[in-house]
Specification:
31% of the residues lie in helices and 30% in strands. The protein has 321 residues and is of the alpha+beta class. The radius of gyration is 20 Å and the shape is globular.
């Protein structure tokens, strides 16, 4: 049997979301009898394996633990579902690469690139992909709200450059609101991304590769009940998520093809999700998620169902690729 660690937790504000994704993934993989599944939770000062027999410390020297009765269990594979640091930013993945342990998500290099939204968008724009227009403000940098709005106009979106789940993200409609939005975003990191607001239909598309090739999932249309797709909309049902999206079939194919191109340009691995705003008939890339949420409220399980696939089969194919 293959010992599979489903790893969650981390050090960011997405900790609780990560644990929900872990619970869902464990349930998705449970029917596969060839796997022994273990819930691993990583926090800043402790790495633990949670089993029905108790909680055990992880030996970081070889990513193993000692079970009751003295059995030494070393993990053969890691399904990584840490949203934020140290998973989605590549730090934990570099550790796994050093040990030679295969894992489900992108490499440490690709994860680090995509976690920095500004760097990732600049990289992908070099291939001719349209990306949202914005600028990065570093902590301590003297850039006035007036300078920013002169360059980008209004309305704006202000968010941590390295972060997810729309934590500390704000829509700014007046120049007087910008200072407070920046202060809030800086609570989640040392760099803030300020972007021109795109006007159009928000969509998102999952993509994965298995032994049979690259697959783009059906496109989901996102209709927030509030002003934008914030944390409450993502995880507390304050949005309508329509799969497949109510857009022309040709436009859906364009989003799917663009998502496959993003996957190829990045050299991605496992499941990713790419978010867009369709403005003037053109899907404009917002950001790439290399560790997409897998909770019951998340997009990927919805898209897998819409494709007529079974999520257990999809995850199995990714692990066995």
């Amino acid at each position: 049997m293959k010992n599979i660690a489903v790893v969650a937790g981390g050090y960011s504000g997405e900790y609780s979301v990560s644990l929900k994704s872990q619970a869902a993934i464990l349930s998705f993989l449970a029917p596969i009898k060839a796997y022994r599944l273990f819930a691993v939770v990583i926090e800043r000062n402790r790495w633990e394996v949670h089993t029905s027999e108790g909680v055990f410390d992880v030996d970081k020297n070889d990513f193993s633990f000692t079970a009751p009765g003295g059995e030494r269990i070393k993990f053969d594979y890691c399904y990584m579902t840490i949203h934020g640091t140290p998973g989605e930013d590549g730090l934990f993945l570099g550790y796994l690469e050093t040990l030679g342990i295969p894992f489900s998500s992108c490499s440490a290099l690709v994860s680090a690139l995509t976690f920095n939204k500004s760097f990732c968008n600049r990289y992908l724009s070099s291939f001719g992909l349209p990306v949202s227009r914005g600028l990065t403000v570093k902590r301590g940098e003297s850039k006035s709200p007036e300078e920013i709005t002169r360059e980008l106009g209004l309305p704006l979106f202000v968010k941590p450059n390295c972060g997810g789940s729309s934590i500390a993200t704000h829509k700014v409609e007046k120049v007087e609101e910008l200072d407070e939005a920046l202060r809030s975003a800086f609570t989640a990191g040392d760099e803030v991304l300020v972007e021109r607001m795109l006007v159009g239909t928000e969509v998102t598309c999952g993509c994965y590769e298995d032994g049979e090739g690259l697959h783009a999932l059906p496109v989901t249309e996102v209709v927030p009940k509030g002003t934008f797709f914030d944390f409450d909309a993502k995880y507390n049902g304050a949005s309508d998520e329509i799969t497949p999206a109510r857009i022309p079939e040709e436009l859906s194919r364009k989003v799917q093809d663009r998502t496959k191109a993003v996957y190829d340009h990045l050299g991605a691995k496992g499941l990713i999700r790419v978010d867009y705003i369709i403005e003037g008939g053109e899907p404009v890339l917002l950001e790439v998620n290399t560790t997409p949420g897998m909770t019951t409220a998340s997009f990927i399980p919805q898209q897998v169902r819409a494709a007529g696939l079974d999520i257990t089969d999809v995850l199995h194919a990714i692990i066995e690729k």
